[in-house]
Backbone:
């Protein structure tokens, strides 16, 4: 089954973290306006899987316009190449909705 594609930007309640899903199957995660993670995503039904270019993965659900992501395992999250120290801090520490 081929996953569907969506387009939109979801942000944390405080707007510090945003995640853009694009129709070309790519995503970008920004922290305070800076790109920190990028990669591709798969969306099958309500389940979404994010595959970061640096090897990390996230899983979540997109239901009725709300995107919820599970916390990543520490060992799998990596900083986006080319960004300075401190920019790779994880945005998802516990299950959290993005709007």
Residues:
């Amino acid at each position: 089954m081929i996953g569907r594609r969506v387009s939109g930007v979801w942000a944390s309640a405080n707007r510090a973290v945003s995640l853009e899903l694009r129709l070309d199957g790519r995503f970008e995660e920004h922290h305070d306006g800076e790109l920190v993670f990028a990669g591709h995503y798969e969306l099958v039904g309500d389940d979404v899987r994010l595959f970061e270019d640096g090897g990390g993965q996230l899983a979540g659900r997109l239901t009725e316009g709300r995107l919820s992501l599970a916390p990543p395992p520490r060992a799998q999250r990596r900083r986006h190449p080319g960004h300075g120290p401190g920019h790779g801090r994880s945005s998802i520490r516990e299950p959290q909705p993005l709007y």
